[in-house]
Amino acid sequence: FPFSSLKLSDFDFNAQTVFGDALWTRGHWSFGGGLEWTRLMDPAGYPPFSPALVHNWTARWTLPLCEKSAFAVSYDGDFRWTHSDREFLEFSRNDATDRTDHTLELMLTHVLCQHAVFQPYYRMQYTHFNSYPLGPRNDYLNSFGAGLYWIICPNFTVRTYADYDVMISGNNRVGGYHKL
Using one digit for the tens of pLDDT, what is the confidence trace for 31-88? Predict the structure, then answer.
């Protein structure tokens, strides 16, 4: 970093994650939920920092349009309980990154041929930070994109994709962005 005393190695960390998920499907509907626990560790001696517990839930409805196409609507939600060490944050609270995410996604899947699939989508994610120290914070992320999948064999696929993201925050101290 040209204007900083930080080195790239200052950002090194290892992660440990334990998770479990369950999914129930009936007809065109799928419902699921899960739990994930993650902690980050400094590679110098491995002291843990920044643990997070995430409870997630999902609902999905898929409508077959024809033999080669299907339309899907899905909702994903989660709640993240975090504990960030104050030395890594600009805030005095160690729960400043506790938040809940709610995501709605619309997706079309179309089989072009036996070895190719095209998949455009739209995703809207709402994030509410429960204890943000700089005032109320609600973020809105809109994503538009498409993927093209080349299925070489059952265990090997090549994927290419493009997306455009627009993030807007309800807190004027948090900058939004447009990203391609």
Answer: 999 999 998 887 776 677 778 899 999 999 999 999 999 999 999 999 999 876 655 5
What is the rounded CA–CA span in Å between residue 32 and residue 26? 12
Rounded-to-integer distance, Cα 57 and Cα 79, Å: 9
Nearest to 120 by CA among 141, 158, 147: 147
Q: Give the integer Cα–Cα distance in Å for 119 and 68.
A: 12
Paired with 36 in beta bridges are 19, 54
Distance of CA 2 to the CA centre of its chain: 30
Distance (Å, whole) CA 146 – CA 124: 15
Mean pLDDT, all residues of the chain: 88
pTM as predicted: 0.80
- Kindly write down the DSSP assignment for every residue of 141-164, as one continuous string: EEEEEEEEEEEEETTEEEEEEEEE
- The answer to whether the beta carbons of residues 151 and 115 sit under 8 Å apart is yes
Phi then psi for residue 86, to 5 deg, are: -60, -25
